[in-house]
Amino acid sequence: xxxxSDVALEDRGxxxxxxxxxxxxxxxxxxxEPDTESGEGREGSGDGGSVTESAGPADRGRxxxxxxxxxxxxxxxxxxxAAPGRPGAAGDERGPxxxxxxxxxxxxTVAFWRGWLARSAYTGRWREMxxxxxxxxxxxxxxxxxxxxxxPTAALPEHLGGERNWDYRYVWIRDAAFSLYxxxxxxFTAEAQAFIAWLSRCLDRSHDGELxxxxxxxxxxxxxxxxxxxxxxxxxYRGSRPVRAGNCAAGQLQLDIYxxxxxxxxxxxxxxxxxxxxxxxxxxxxxDWLLDHWDTPDQGIWETRAGQQHHTYxxxxxxxxxxxxxxxxxxxxxxxxxxRWRRERDAIYRQxxxxxxxxxxxxxxxxxxxxxxxxxxAELDASLLxxxxxxxxxxNDPRFHSTVEAIAEELVTDGLVFRYDPRLxxxxxxxEEGTFSICSFWWVEALTRTGxxxxxxLALEKIFTYANHTGLYxxxxxxxGEHLGNFPQAFTHLALISAATNLDRSLG
Length: 508
What we know:
Layout (H helix, E strand, L loop, with lengths): L1 E4 L4 E3 L2 E3 L1 E2 L9 E4 L16 E5 L7 E5 L8 E2 L22 H19 L9 H13 L1 E2 L4 E2 L22 E2 H14 L2 H16 L12 E2 L10 E2 L13 E2 L10 H16 L5 H17 L18 H21 L5 H18 L1 E2 L4 E2 L33 H13 L1 E2 L2 E2 L17 E2 H13 L3 H12 L11 E2 L5 E2 L5 H18 L1
Parallel strand pairs: 4-8
Antiparallel strand pairs: 1-5, 1-7, 2-3, 6-7, 9-10, 11-12, 13-14, 15-16, 17-18, 19-20, 20-21
Helix pairs in contact: 2-12, 3-4, 3-5, 3-12, 5-7, 6-7, 7-8, 10-11, 10-12, 11-12
């Protein structure tokens, strides 16, 4: 890579450093561009670095640092900063990008993003935060395929110095399905259509087996094979080891993904372009597998590494999968085995109500009782907040109200929500973790749906104070406000959109 600038640059062990002053109304140009494909014939290619100077229109002249695979950084002794111009395709024959050309590219980029945001249907109270989240989801979308990655980073720790360091640079079916819902809510149907096209290609290549026809995650090209590797030669962020590339959760059974996937298809069929014959055929085949396997233990939404359990949320989402397929079939008059589908749907519902409800605590719980008539373990889980959002229970159901209050007492601290208590529910990993950002937004939406709108508004606006200066969130927030885990995370921002739009509607 080569960094061009009209600031004098110094190579320090492969990093580019420059000191400069800028006043109001002035700008400084930085252009980071790739070397030629072969890298041959270029001074300083390889591991070393070099500093060059070339004539240019700026008074200070033009400078460049070429440092193999390293990137450059700039700093100001006055605390000022200049936005880098965005180069187009670079080649040696063109030389450094001129300031005028860089400004044109910058202006075109701004115009594109403003034009894209102008398509948003959201005009509510928290437009800036919602639109920042929409931009994050768009930037996490792989344009050539329509895939939506969970996060662009890997191995940023959930606990500093700990082992909870995962690679999120893949397409989680769960995250992408929720993202589709958020994009449809805002009116971005083209992105939703692109994701459905990517999903259809994955369904065409799906296979049955122990893990079922769907996998938890895929590469942006639709490959479900994502082996996990520990990179022992890397120290990790602030000493957080091991650094992992790949993710072995790709080989887990997580039954909730079927509900999230089919719910997103249901919404697309209702608000988007509708599902094709081939997609419906694939969905029917997937549902046939699920109807034979829904009463199976799995690793659940949180991808625990402590073995498979009968998770309440997984059962709820299996119910969602069957219920939404019934809805699509009825709405479109599509072929379906409705007798069997309704029978299995009702069986799942009864199981959750009988084995997922702890009468002693008066709450739904993280896991089901081992057998009919038994008492489930008393541990709570923030995913239970989604029960009315997926229409499994009414938000006015006394069982859900008491569950919300139990979660408030055990998992909520200052408006931030833990996904569960790892001290009570061992997940196979050592160390602690922060509050889960998506759970905090689920908390807001649960309060909204139970009619506690002022309490929800206070919680939402408090969570907004934890965003960084660009309105983005990591996966988790520590108790002292630090961002933990991979950043930015699609899961968090899609929940923000949903919470804000629903609260807006309730406030009127």
